[in-house]
């Protein structure tokens, strides 16, 4: 009994050392173990800037279909209000989770934040961690009134750090001010003049739910008019390359139909050896229409099971 008491006492004294606002790097790496490439300093997978730029041209439907084929059925969510609907957004996800305020939870969180050098209200802490190319994604419980996670001041800070924007299952205030931030974009549930109340930021860089999608830190997000899709980092290159190839096939097929060289029935079904050969010749004759590096395309074609 004495040893049991001492063990419990030892654990109790150690608890503050294990208290975290940000998910420990080791646990984040555990959740994202399928990623084998470069990582950010905080442990998030770092999908390359080049792939992010290519992702902008991928359609949501193509990305969704490829992820579904890989068994990822919970990565999309729609029905958003968008600050700039005609401006797609991509980036590496940094997550934050918010919960209803509770004094006995909120007080130690704020006290721990002070010991870690965090300043301001908890809704500003994730912003301090953002880097270029990040997208700030927050589970704000879908709260609109008194659930505005940022206004134009924090919006300016976010854009200065990331050059992207936000995705909030929650709301924002100061829409006119946010619209004045050239390049800034946001997918939110609503706009409201109220300020954040009765909410506490409980975790940064942890798994969260956004509508019907599950999101991990370091996921790559593709946000367009139809909604947002969160792509696991280890599948980003596969999704992009497959989507680009589908687009390349479509470009060839559309041109062949316009020129009357093949019928819709020939193009819409599995291609014959003759059509495949014509497609490969068309690629060689139209290098500017190839969206991926040629080496990537050649490897893809070598491995592809037509």
UniProtKB/TrEMBL annotation:
Keywords: Magnesium, Metal-binding, Signal. Gene3D superfamilies: Ribonuclease E inhibitor RraA/RraA-like (3.50.30.40). Substrate binds at residues 151-154, 173. The keyword Ubl conjugation does not apply. One of its GO terms (molecular function) is metal ion binding. Its cofactor is Mg(2+). It holds the Pfam family RraA-like. Residues 1-19 form the signal peptide. Mg(2+) binds at residue 174. InterPro entries: RraA/RraA-like, RraA/RraA-like_sf. This is RraA family protein. It comes from Fibrella rubiginis.
């Amino acid at each position: 009994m004495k040893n049991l008491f001492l063990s419990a006492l030892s654990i109790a004294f150690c608890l503050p050392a294990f208290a975290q606002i940000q998910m420990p790097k080791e646990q984040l790496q555990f959740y994202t173990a399928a990623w084998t490439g470069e990582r950010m300093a905080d442990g998030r997978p770092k999908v390359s800037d080049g792939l992010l730029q290519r992702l902008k041209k991928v359609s949501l439907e193509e990305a969704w279909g490829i992820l579904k084929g890989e068994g990822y059925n919970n990565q999309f969510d729609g029905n958003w209000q968008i600050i700039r609907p005609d401006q797609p957004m991509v980036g590496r996800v940094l997550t934050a989770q918010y919960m209803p305020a509770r004094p006995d939870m909120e007080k130690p969180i704020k006290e721990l934040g002070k010991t870690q050098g965090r300043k301001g209200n908890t809704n500003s802490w994730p912003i301090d961690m953002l880097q270029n190319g990040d997208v700030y994604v927050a589970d704000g419980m879908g709260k609109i009134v008194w659930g505005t996670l940022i206004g134009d001041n924090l919006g300016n800070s976010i854009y200065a750090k990331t050059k992207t924007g936000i995705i909030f299952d929650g709301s924002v205030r100061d829409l006119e001010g946010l619209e004045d931030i050239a390049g800034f974009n946001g997918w939110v549930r609503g706009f409201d003049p109220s300020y954040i109340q009765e909410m506490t930021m409980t975790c940064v860089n942890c798994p969260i739910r956004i509508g019907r999608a599950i999101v991990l830190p370091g996921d790559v997000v593709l946000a367009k008019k139809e909604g947002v899709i969160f792509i696991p980092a280890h599948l980003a290159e596969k999704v992009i390359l497959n989507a680009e190839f589908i687009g390349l096939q479509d470009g060839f097929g559309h041109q062949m139909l316009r020129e009357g060289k093949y019928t819709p029935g020939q193009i819409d079904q599995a291609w014959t050896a003759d059509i495949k050969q014509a497609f490969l010749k068309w690629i060689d004759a139209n290098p500017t229409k190839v969206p991926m590096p040629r080496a990537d395309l050649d490897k893809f074609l070598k491995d592809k099971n037509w």
